[in-house]
Every structure is written in C-alpha cells, then in structure tokens.
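About this split. The held-out portion is used to measure sequence recovery: a designer receives only the structure tokens and must propose an amino acid at every position. Recovery is the fraction of positions where the proposal matches the reference. Here is one held-out target exactly as it appears in the evaluation file.
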C-alpha cells in the first residue's frame, strides 16, 4: 500500500522539478535572446572622406554594412569637438546640461562626466548586460570619472583626447595604468573581438571608441623605430597616412562584424557606427558641406552614420531624417526594453520605429551650442541658424546645403522666431547646469 503512495510522491517531485527546470530554461533563454548592442565611434571622420559618401578613400566593410542596413544622410554629432559629443552620447542629454561644452584638454582638467549621471552602460549593466569600452574615453580623467564608475565592466584605453598610435604608456586597464602592445586601431579591434567571443552566450553592450582618424597621423608601419626623424610632413604625406589609417579602421569594423557572423550573433546584435565630429579637411576633394571640426556649419557636426541589425533593420535603405548622437540612449533602451528613470530629463528621442519600420520622426528643433567660442547653431527642419553675439546667419539647407548665402534679412519673422528659440534653449540648459551645482 505504501509503494503507490511513494511513486506518487516521486511523480510529484519529478513534475515539480521539470516545471522548475523549464521555467529556468525559459528565463535563461529570454535573457540570452535580449539583443546585444555595439556602438562603433570614429574620431574626426567627416562625410567627405569615405567612399560611402562619395569620398576619396575606399571603405568596403562600412559600405557593405550600409548595404545590409541603413545609411544616414542627416545624422549629427552633438558637437563639432570630441568631449561634448561623447558626453551627449553617453547621457542622451545636451552636453550643456552636464556643463561640458568644450574639449576636456588633459589630466589637469577637473571637469568631466560625474557618476551621478545616468548613462548607457550604467543602465545596461543594471539590466544584467556585460559592458565594455575599448579605446578613447575623453569624458574626464579623474578617478571618479573613470569608465568603470559609469557602468563599464571592462575598460582598456586612454582617458585624454589624443594618443600616440604605438606608444601606450598612458593607457588604462580599468583604473590602473597598464601599457598595451601594438597599434591602437588593432588593439581596440582585437579587444572588442575577444570581448564578443567571451560573452557570446550573454547579452552585452560594447562601445568601440577608436582613436582613428585623429592625429597624430601614424600608420601601423610608423613605429617609433621606423618614423622619419623629421616630424614635419607634407600634405601629400599626411594624406597617404590618413588613407591607411581609415583603411585600417574599416578593416576593424569588418572583423567585428565577421565575429558576430562566426558566432551566429548577427540577427541578435544592433550595431551603430558614426563619428564624433566633422573632418579636419585632410583630403583634396571638394567637401560636401561647409566647415569641419571646430565649426558650427554643417561640416562640423553632420557626420557619417550607419545602423545594422539583420532581420530587423531593412537592408539597403537611406534615412534622410534629422537625427543626433544623443538619440542613441533612448533608442537603445527602447530596443532592449530598459526603462530610464522618470526623473531623468532626456533631450534625445527614440528612433526605434524609424529604424525598424521606416516611420517618420516628429518635427523638432535641435541645437548645437559651443559657447562662447563658436556661438550657437539651430536646426529647424531644413532651416539652419547660427548666432554669435550680434551676428545672425540663416540658411535654407533645402536650397543651400553648403550654407553660402545668409538670408536672415530676407526672412525677418523666421529669424526673430529662431533667435528667440535659441535664447530660450540657452537659458534652459544653463539653468539646469547651475541647479546641479
């Protein structure tokens, strides 16, 4: 009489264990299927140099990435210099709200991204993602501003704006100085590949923050032993080195994408590539836009950008929507299903539906402030305004993409309206910074 009862108990235990195991497997599968995210950032790369934008240097892997995803024609970095753009990218907010409007020069600079800020890696890490950054940080050099204090599990790279491509005595491994061996572009690529392979079974966020194509203009062959003793280079020599640097960058993008394919991660990984500001005008070709780095004209902040997610993002289409680097935080959180704290005011918007369904984005005004050096710029659809002191410039980009003819006097009402909007915006972001001090 006891045996049936015993068997019944065993059966109940077995069923309960099976249900628990199935539940655990389902939860594990759900975690593993959350999309990975990779941001690949170039430095000082404008639209005019890449073959993707009819430039003079072939970038076959990025071109292929665009054919497999979406290429942007009106994508902008938040600033025409490094640090402010990276601050806006990490926070989804205008960099003015954080108080970083200019380049963080070096180790003596105390300003930077504080741990109190909500960032992409912080949100992702809290959601169970593995997180890493390899390469250039440039968001502060103090220990509290280190990437590992912003949610990155791993960090190998340099804190300041520029670094030798072969000598890495100032590179960090987490919070410790640890010299690396090799060429910067290759180190950053190889560490990224290793991170993907180590985390192929876990959801991850990877920030591939290249030094290229920022100066000094050094190729893999320009080791300290092989460099010309005369540091002065002709423009032709600089162009030749710049070409090789961009080609190596492009190869690195290809290696990362190949690694995703190797481990069957392509359809579960959202990859976004762009540049932190416009070019420094190395090439001899005609530039597509006026201005470059350190400029509020379109060439200073309209940059190359591509998004790829096979099976989710339609292959081979072109986006002409006005999009900014600070849009990536809300977009990524929308994609991975992570909620941003409600008390955190974001200036960026999610472009998820635009990426996945080609839905038009709402009309909005976007501001590019670089006070006091360059003044403030504003985009309102195809209208572009620049102000600095008493100087006001207005351009119709639908007719004058190179911003050659100031039409402020021709459209006085629009000029007054946009100028007022700029002043209101400056007041809002300045007061926000002041209230946090």
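Reference sequence for scoring:
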């Amino acid at each position: 009489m006891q045996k049936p009862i015993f068997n019944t108990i065993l059966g109940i235990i077995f069923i309960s264990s099976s249900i628990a195991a199935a539940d655990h497997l389902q939860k594990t599968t759900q975690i593993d299927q959350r999309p990975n995210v990779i941001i690949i950032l170039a430095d000082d790369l404008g639209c005019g140099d890449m073959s993707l934008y009819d430039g003079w240097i072939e970038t076959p892997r990025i071109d292929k990435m665009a054919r497999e995803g979406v290429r942007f024609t009106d994508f902008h970095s938040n600033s025409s210099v490094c640090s402010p753009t990276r601050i806006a990218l990490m926070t989804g907010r205008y960099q003015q709200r954080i108080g970083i409007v200019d380049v963080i020069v070096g180790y003596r600079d105390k300003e930077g991204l504080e741990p109190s800020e909500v960032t992409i890696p912080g949100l992702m890490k809290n959601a169970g993602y593995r997180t890493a950054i390899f390469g250039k940080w440039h968001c502060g050099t103090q220990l509290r501003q280190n990437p590992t204090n912003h949610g990155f599990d791993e960090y190998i790279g340099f804190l300041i704006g520029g670094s030798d491509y072969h000598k890495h005595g100032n590179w960090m491994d987490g919070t410790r100085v640890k010299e690396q061996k090799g060429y910067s572009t290759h180190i950053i690529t190889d560490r990224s590949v290793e991170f993907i392979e180590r985390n192929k079974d876990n959801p991850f966020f990877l920030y591939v923050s290249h030094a290229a194509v920022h100066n000094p203009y050094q190729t893999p062959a320009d080791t300290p032993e092989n460099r010309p003793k005369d540091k002065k280079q002709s423009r032709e020599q600089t162009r030749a080195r710049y070409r090789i640097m961009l080609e190596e960058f492009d190869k690195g993008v290809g290696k990362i994408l190949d690694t995703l394919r190797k481990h069957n991660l392509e359809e579960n990984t959202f990859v976004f590539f762009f540049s932190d500001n416009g070019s420094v005008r190395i090439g001899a070709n005609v530039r597509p836009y006026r201005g470059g780095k350190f400029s509020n004209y379109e060439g200073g902040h309209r940059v190359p950008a591509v998004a790829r997610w096979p099976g989710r993002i339609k292959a081979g289409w072109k986006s002409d929507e006005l999009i900014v680097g600070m849009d990536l935080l809300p977009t990524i959180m929308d994609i991975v299903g992570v909620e941003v704290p409600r008390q955190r005011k974001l200036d960026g918007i999610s472009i998820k539906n635009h990426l996945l369904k080609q839905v038009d984005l709402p009309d909005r005004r976007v501001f590019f402030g670089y006070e006091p050096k360059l003044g403030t710029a504003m985009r309102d659809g195809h209208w572009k305004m620049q102000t600095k002191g008493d100087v006001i410039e207005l351009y119709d980009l639908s007719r004058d993409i190179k911003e050659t003819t100031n039409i402020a006097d021709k459209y006085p009402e629009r000029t007054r309206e946009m100028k007022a909007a700029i002043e209101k915006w400056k007041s809002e972001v300045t007061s926000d910074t002041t209230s946090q001090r």
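Annotator remark: The CA atoms of residues 394 and 406 lie 5 Å apart.
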